[in-house]
Design a protein that fits this description.
Number of strands of chain B: 9
Number of strands of chain A: 11
Largest sheet of chain B: 6 strands, mixed
Helix content of chain B: under 10%
Order of helices and strands of chain A: EEEEEEEEEEE
Largest interface: A-B, 22 and 27 residues
Strand content of chain A: over 45%
Structural class of chain B: mainly beta
Radius of gyration of chain A: 13 Å
Distance between the termini of chain A: 39 Å
Strand content of chain B: 35-45%
Number of helices of chain A: 0
Order of helices and strands of chain B: EEEEEEEEE
Number of helices of chain B: 0
Helix content of chain A: under 10%
Oligomer: heterodimer
Shape of chain A: globular
Shape of chain B: globular
């Protein structure tokens, strides 16, 4: 069974860079059929798509976040990563990684809360 | 990128049916059959319930069904059960390999 697990600091200072990694197990990140996604959810609020990456490195980003987001992939480690620069309190959220295929996000990680605070 | 519009809340009694709407535009919901629905219980990750407007993943009860008309997609839960109480989110492709979610609907089983 495919599993995804987010990891990274739970606390980041304002103006710094948020960095998270998603480790995929039970399947290959190099699958032709799927993209890999980051999605966030501020406390008490809805879901927001951040971006997708293909195993080849092709990326697609939410236009509202594009200037601050970088998603990368490491196929040798079966991982993909998120960097979000110049964070503010508004970036505090639970961050999820997910598999994206056929127009839907079909497997999700458990999520990790990242708080932006000094 | 604007979020798809969902009612903040919906409710129904056990055994009844409830429908949740998801309204977009001719550039997203109306343009593509890539509408999906997710169920999220408190403190848990979202779970895919419907994909490609009306398809159910393996393991999702057939009480859950999806449809679309024009720029509005709908999720219907029939034979409501207590465990269906959760937040529900729709999602759609909006072109240029971008994806958008709805604001979410809190479903209460009375």
């Amino acid at each position: 069974q495919l599993q995804l697990q987010e990891s990274g600091p739970g606390l980041v200072k304002p103006s710094e860079t948020l960095s998270l990694t998603c480790t995929v197990s039970g399947g290959s990140i190099s699958s032709y059929d799927y993209y890999w996604a980051w999605i966030r959810q501020p406390p008490g609020k809805g879901l927001e798509w951040i971006g997708n990456i293909y195993y080849s490195g092709s990326t697609y980003y939410n236009p509202s976040l594009k200037s601050r987001v970088t998603v990368s992939v490491d196929t040798s480690k079966n991982q993909f990563s998120l960097k979000l620069t110049s964070v503010t309190a508004a970036d505090t959220a639970v961050f999820y990684c997910a598999r994206h295929g056929g127009g839907s996000f079909d497997f999700w990680g458990q999520g990790t809360l990242v708080t932006i605070s000094s | 990128q604007s979020a798809l519009t969902q009612p903040p809340s919906a409710s129904g009694s056990p055994g009844q049916s409830v429908t949740i709407s998801c309204t977009g535009t001719s550039s997203d919901v109306g343009a593509y059959n890539y509408v999906s629905w997710y169920q999220q219980h408190p403190g848990k990750a979202p779970k895919l319930m419907i994909y490609e407007v009306s398809e159910r993943p393996s393991g999702v009860p057939d009480r859950f069904s999806g449809s679309k008309s024009g720029n509005t997609a709908s999720l219907t839960v029939s034979g409501l059960q207590a465990e269906d109480e959760a937040d529900y989110y729709c999602s759609s492709h909006e072109g240029s390999n971008n994806w958008v979610f709805g604001g979410g609907t809190k479903l209460t089983v009375l």
